Amino acid sequence: MRLADFIDANVEPILSAAEAFAATMLPAASHLDAVALRDHMPMILTAVAKDLRSAQTRSERLAKSLGQQPRIHGAPETAAQIHALLRAKAGFDISQLVAEYRALRASVLSLWFEGGKAGDADTQEDLIRFNEAIDQAVAESVAYFTAEMDRWRHVFLGVLGHDLRGPLNSILLTAELLSKMTTEAPLERHTVRLIQSGKRMKTLLDDLLDFSRASLGLGLGIHRTTIDLTSVCIEEVELLRTALPDAEIGFRSEGETTGSFDGSRVREALGNLVSNAARYGTKQTAIDVALVGDDRQVRLSVSNAGESIPTENMQALFEPLRRGRPSDELAETANLGLGLFIVKEIARAHAGEITVTSSSGTTVFTLVLPQSAPD
């Protein structure tokens, strides 16, 4: 009997063994009944048997074992993928999910060989094909399980960031009220420090919320108005000069810089780029901010002197939770490594782009934004 026929003829003992093993996955399995313990295992077995009967080339079989084979049936999601989603919601961890497939593989093969299957050429072929089909199911399950866990992690971060904003705003308002009420120098210093720390925390929470939205595929929300980016950038540069007193920040503007933008988001992007330049660039050298516009787009660039960035590291700069090494070891490190990621998302929300060049000791980040919203 070929393995596909054996699976069809022995579904119940195979599933009984799989159910018994799933019941040992504690504490997640403690609240699951027999149907939930089996979950999509019957459909997975059906898909495996169908796969064993299908004609496949060597390259197709290799792709299948790597989880790259087209789905066996035309459903939006495979049984292995749905099984992974439900196991994630039930509280299984990824090692328990993979262990289920190990147990399923062992159950099928042990029952097959207990039936006295001879080791002929067909047996070897079926063994290879069976393992490839199980590997495909594992790859599909792991990918979906990981994506589901990441999604819930981002939801948690978003909820946490949102819920913390209320108490933090109360702290800031109270600190600002105390600052206005006191005229004693020691108390004033303490309240100023409290306000500065609170504002720093608010910035971190805002970054966390933006990261969560982007990671969930929601993108950053923007509100376009017709504004002159020159005045917007001048205001932000003045604030940055106050916040970064040790940095020399120059600004120049030319061309047509009035268009449809979210001024607040552009200021946020500029602030992140200049702060990044101050943190990682060579100290006591100027940071140059340039805004150049025409009738199609504006280009906002921030350049600074410093060690050149290796070409192979440039794309990673815009990945979330990545931080470089500050040029000054004493520089502030209380950041989440989200600044350049958020700049990229701001550019994307405007249908623009962010690029970076770095050579001969000069690094330039350029934010390119269209003058108007795309049709």
Automatic annotation (TrEMBL):
Instruction: Provide a Gene Ontology MF annotation, just one.
Output: phosphorelay sensor kinase activity
Could you name the domain of life of the organism this protein comes from? Answer: Bacteria
Show the coiled coil region(s): none
Q: Which residues form the Histidine kinase domain?
A: 159-373
Q: Which UniProt keywords apply?
A: Phosphoprotein
Q: Which CDD domains match?
A: HisKA
Protein name in UniProt: histidine kinase
Specify the species: Variovorax paradoxus
Q: What taxonomic ancestry is recorded? A: Bacteria, Pseudomonadati, Pseudomonadota, Betaproteobacteria, Burkholderiales
